[in-house]
Amino acid sequence: MAIRILSAELAARIAAGEVIERPASVVKELIENSLDAGARQVVVDVQGGGLTLIQVSDDGCGIAPEELPLAVQRHATSKIADPADLNRIATLGFRGEALASIVAAADLEVVSRPHDSLVAASLKVVDGAIVHQGSRGAPPGTTVTVRHLFRRQPARLKFLRSKAVESSHLTALLNAYALAYPEVRFRLRIDGRTVLQTSGQGDLREAAAEVHGAAVASASLMVVADADASGIAVRGLLSPPHVSRASRSEIHIFVNRRWVQSRSLTFAIEEAYQGLLTVGRHPIAALTVTLPVADVDVNVHPSKAEVRFRDERAVFAAVQRAVRQTLMTAAPIPALSVVGGEKSLAEIEVQPVSMPDRLARPPAVQPATAKSTAGPSQPAFVARMPVLRPVGQVASTYIIAEGPDGMYLIDQHAAHERVLYEQVRAARQHQAVETQGLLEPVTVDLSPAQAMRLRDEEAALAPFGFDIELFGDRTWLLRAVPAVLAGRDPAAGLREFLDLLERPDSPRERDDRIAATIACHAAVRAGKVLSQEEMRELVQLLETTEMPHTCPHGRPTMIHLSQATLEREFRRR
Ligand code: ADP
Ligand code: MG
Predict the structure, then answer these.
(1) How far apart are CA 262 and CA 252, in angstroms?
(2) Sheet of strand 129-136: strand arrangement
(3) CB distance 34 to ligand 1 below 6 Å
(4) What is the largest CA-CA distance in the chain?
(5) Which end of the chain is least crowded, N or C, by CB within 10 Å?
(6) Whole-angstrom distance, CA of residue 465 vs CA of residue 457
(7) Is the pTM of this model over 0.70?
(8) Residue 76: nearest ligand to its CA?
(9) Which pLDDT value is given to residue 67?
(10) C-alpha of residue 29 to centroid of ligand 1, in Å
């Protein structure tokens, strides 16, 4: 389609925006133009944090020479023509504003050669005015060079952070696009140094290796969820629970291959990791959500960084389901491949245990301490944990169990923690926590740090069954505790509890951490002798949990010695 100026009516319906905030916004617009032009190779060069020079070269379709002056005008685009097009945008750009905004903020030169032209046309804009037009030899494709960004906007310059910060924004941007477009060869050079280079072979894991390193890439889990009833498909890559980050910055979401910021979908992903990661840790994710273009409005945000879904809940559910399913299917029970004393834990081979057709699920045991919860948790997915028969205990710490494929060693504390964690969380959610009133209120003297923490957390603790009242400066009165903690020394318990409670960064994380702390505190200790009946009950309870393979802190609850391994080790075959 030719570039043309949008009608005033259509231009008015476009969510206008100052798209150029920082060097990375220029690069984002230029990369998006390259991708819209069908480029298979995009090379980005940056100097001085992007303020001195930004150059983006592609091998895309190019711009016809006579259209070059039009391309840098406001509301000039080849991507939409009439208002109905706004409801079916399949390109990343559509407003015809990016080049015009860049020209308003910097000097720009475009050199472009369509594939059917023999030479490239060039256009140079300085201080907003075209100063040169010509032709020259160049390979097919487009190169846009941006110099002196914000030289004429000293106020903007002041708001920019250091060159290093701007460069890190640029790297993050290229990383994201490299993950969303593995079939495109990306290269980012900062001050002459190549910081990212992908092969463009179309292999997501390979692209991830360039972005996150080989170790993370090979451990990553592939998400493949084909279109559901609403036509929503989810694909991409996730970190396994043992790989995590301290921030959410490695969670990337693409909607119809557009990089978007979505709190709601980020939340959907994180929630699916519920209980697999320690509170405060975040997964690595690059997920592409594909849905009919008519079901998503991309014309809502100035820099097109946010989108609106016709059915937000359906998209949320599809993402959460895809992530959950991937984690469930992949979450491995660490398998002990060799027993001989020589192998360290780190060398233990990890294999996923898959049990497509599980046998009868044992009747779910009602939690003894939280009777009023929503009842046994419903299995949402099959084959999460094989049915196990406990045969004994080792070192009063591990339960030995027999399963359909060999032997399992279960860490009794970790397993019980998992069970209690899910029970406590469910009870909290349904406001059905059982409280144990103390016959005599107990006074608890706290350290200044503990007292401060308790002041912060007091309101959050009440729904979990704590009844605490400030009594003196650092003295509190404890009147009731969660029933799961009954029988423990309440004062010592509270102090220890406050020490365990690190400061989380959201109310939900705080609740999860409180639940995990209660579970940790209430769970049966390593070193406690269990009766056959107790072991059986614990294993059955573990089977009813949603995430039986890890404790709330992400440690394994069990390891597996397969039938094949046993036979090999005893040289039976
Ligand atoms: P938009 O992308 O919203 O259409 P831009 O200002 O970014 O607006 O670009 C204006 C037009 O210039 C585009 O519609 C496209 O036709 C053309 N164009 C810009 N960059 C490229 C490129 N790298 N390759 C081919 N055409 C381009
Ligand atoms: Mg554009």
Answers:
(1) 9
(2) 129-136, 120-126, 107-113, 141-147, 53-58, 41-47, 185-190, 193-197
(3) yes
(4) 92
(5) C
(6) 13
(7) no
(8) 1
(9) 94
(10) 9
DSSP 7: P
- Tell me the torsion sign for CA atoms 409, 411, 414, 419: positive
Locate tokens 């559910």: which residue? 317
**Ligand found nearest the CA of 78:** 1
Taking CA atoms only, the protein residue closest to ligand 1 atom 2 is: 93
H or E element, residue 207: helix 204-212
CA distance 544 to 364: 6
110 to 57, 58, 64, 281, 355: CA distances (angstroms): 10, 12, 12, 44, 58
Give the C-alpha separation, 247 to 226, whole Å. 29
Length of the chain in terms of residues written: 573
Query: Mean pLDDT over residues 515-540, rounded?
Result: 91
Site to substitute for ligand 1 among 6, 33, 103, most atoms within 8 A of C-beta = 33
Residues 6+ positions from 160 with CB-CB distance below 8 Å: 22, 23, 49, 51, 150, 166
Task: Tell me how far the alpha carbon of residue 92 lies from the centroid of ligand 2, in angstroms.
Answer: 7
- Could you report the per-residue pLDDT of 468-496, keeping only the tens digit for each? 998 887 889 999 999 988 877 888 778 87
pLDDT in tens, 82-133: 888 888 888 998 888 899 999 989 999 999 999 999 999 999 999 989 999 9
Token pair listed for 447: 């350290």
Q: Classify the C-alpha dihedral 408-413-416-420 as positive or negative.
A: negative
- Side by side, which strands form the sheet with 475-482? 435-445, 475-482, 467-470
DSSP assigned state of 109: E
Q: Which long-range contacts (CB under 8 A, 24 or more apart) does 427-431 make?
A: 427/370, 427/372, 427/373, 428/463, 428/464, 428/511, 428/515, 430/372, 430/373, 430/374, 431/463
Query: Do 133 and 63 contact (CB within 8 A), yes or no?
Result: no
Do 302 and 15 meet the contact criterion of CB atoms below 8 Å apart? yes
**Among 247-261, 288-302, 375-389, 517-531, whose mean pLDDT is lowest?**
375-389
